[in-house]
Amino acid sequence: MSKRFLQIALVCILSVTMLGAGKPNASFDKIGHKLMCQCSCGQILLECNHVGCPVSGPMIDELHAQIATGLPEAGVLNWFIGKYGPIVLAEPIRGGFDDVAWIVPCVIFVLATLGVVLLIRMWHRRHAQLQPAIPASMPNTTTDTMRDRIRHDTDFDS
Hints:
- By secondary structure, the chain is an all-alpha fold.
- Among the domains are: 24-91, Helicase, Ruva Protein, domain 3 (Orthogonal Bundle), CATH 1.10.8; 96-129.
- 58% of the residues lie in helices and 0% in strands.
- It contains six helices and no strands.
- α2 crosses α3.
- It is elongated.
- The termini are far apart.
- 7% of the residues are buried.
- It comes from Granulicella mallensis (strain ATCC BAA-1857 / DSM 23137 / MP5ACTX8).
- One of its GO terms (molecular function) is metal ion binding.
């Protein structure tokens, strides 16, 4: 019984220690997905799938080196911005002038929607003003004789 208990304990200890064995550094993964590969492929740095990409390997090595220095995430991102420019970021950093990149598309969408609504209202009002008002007491122009004539003209003689 004690031998079986030791085997179970050993398996549990090994499985717990192996849970994080294949998982990369969390900060490396997080920062690497915020950077773009600079080989003009338009892909995230850690997801660049070009065979023999001359840029992604050195950039990943630089990322490892910057994380190893102990810089916080913002410091590593600023280092990459300093070296490659702001185009290295997969999305703009929140804050400062970069907020414009987040706010302007939403504002333009809302303004365009309001503009379309106002334009439709204006067209509707203009159309209503151009049509003459139909009086409620307009006499009926279709008489019984007219109906009889129409029936006679459209009746098919068999």
